[in-house]
User: Fold this.
Amino acid sequence: MSTPKSMQSEQQSQASAASGPLMRVQDLSKFYGDIVGCENVSFELNPGEVLGVVGESGSGKTTLLNCVSARLKPTNGTVEYDTRDRGLTDIYKILESERRFLMRTDWGIVYQDAMEGLRPRVTAGANVGERLIALGQRHFGNLRAETVDWFDRIEMDVDRIDDMPKNFSGGMRQRLQIARNLVTKPRLVFMDEPTSGLDVSVQARLLDLIRELVSRMGIACIIVTHDLGVVRLLSDRLMVMQKGAVVEHGLTDQVLDDPQHPYSQLLVSSILPV
Amino acid sequence: MAPRKKTMITVNGLTKTFTLHLRDGIKLPVLADLSLTVRQGDCVVLAGPSGIGKSSLLRCIYANYLPQSGSVKIRHDDKLVELTNATPATVLAIRRTTMGYVSQFLRVVPRVRTLDLVMEPLLALGHGEDEAREKASALLSRLCIPERLWTVPPATFSGGEQQRVNIARSFAFNYPVLLLDEPTAALDVENRQVVVAMINEARKAGAAIAGIFHDKEVREAVGTSEFDLTNHLSNAA
Assistant:
């Protein structure tokens, strides 16, 4: 895939003064009554790092993702994020308005179902440009230009800019959702099964797009998936979850090639050959 | 006097055992108390019969495998860095600028053009688009991948062509440490000679190389010393 010129020099702006972790999670637990969502999860995420979270359905992956992305208050433990003005700050101890601001600017959230992350009643172009308006950009010409540039990056026909998302195919919606999230140049993006639900041919292209954008822009990422192929290609580090607990955590290649925990061994050995 | 060649890889007392939890926790010992040093300009040929643990040793050095005990150190930014307990970020940094690895199989994102795959490691290091394209093109030409295939993803390539794409990816940047796992296994004579020449050039430029070569001719053409694993594993298997 060829790369538009505008993508080349973005990495510097991302690698700001930060030398410490971008996010620090300590002893995080979430209980639904007696039921364990996730339990005693701790990890740090560095700027630009891609963390994969795998495990079977019900292992607590999505609960964890919701807790660390400020959408579900944990029962115990802390989630700290390196805010631009105050450094590492507990995201559940700041004002709701500050948390909203963080989610609008510094963060992106890519849902499995693209329609959850898109606004169905506005055009594709507005879905992308809207996040810039939320950042205070008002010049229509600039907004339009940046949106067109993003259509180019996600390999979408600019002629479709005024169409509604519901008229797009699943793969196109997902690409649109990614553009909507990345247009504000976030430092951290949460992805929940970004490629499942798409047919395989679209999956490969989307994976390549995500990998390219994330590495060029130096964005840190937490990706929840049950697809080990996806994490092999996208993530630097891997956490394996079972019954709400992290049973193994390490370099992606190492966890997949030499899994230590019985459950990780089961997961890896269960991959179907093609 | 020539400057002293620096130690690039040191392996000390390395022990690797696989525990198969799904097979009643059966233990498979692979490497026991193994030590090895590779200096700049060395090409150490790992020898021994199939199944003796040559690839496992390379994977322990590349940090794909987690050893039970012992130490693996790589010279990175002119300091010997311990890998067995390094953070993923450290391992990735070492892989980015210090240690290259050619596996037997090409494992890449499907549907990405061959040329882009070869450019990718250079772009990740911050090289410019044009420079990366030039270098990648030169490598692909040298490895006799016809230009009409450059814009095609390598999924449909023959085994030998895929292997050469893999080699091009790992030789695009001059890694100070190179691990080669049968890089010439699927190649014909002509291409084998090209790869042999590339390995020797890298070594003469100061790279420290450890590799597995099943072909005797290749072994003799690139190796500066041999490390026979059978002599070093007293109690394994």
In short: Confidence is low (pLDDT under 50) at residues 1-18 of chain A. The first strand of chain A starts at residue 23 and ends at 32. DSSP finds eleven helices and ten strands in chain A.
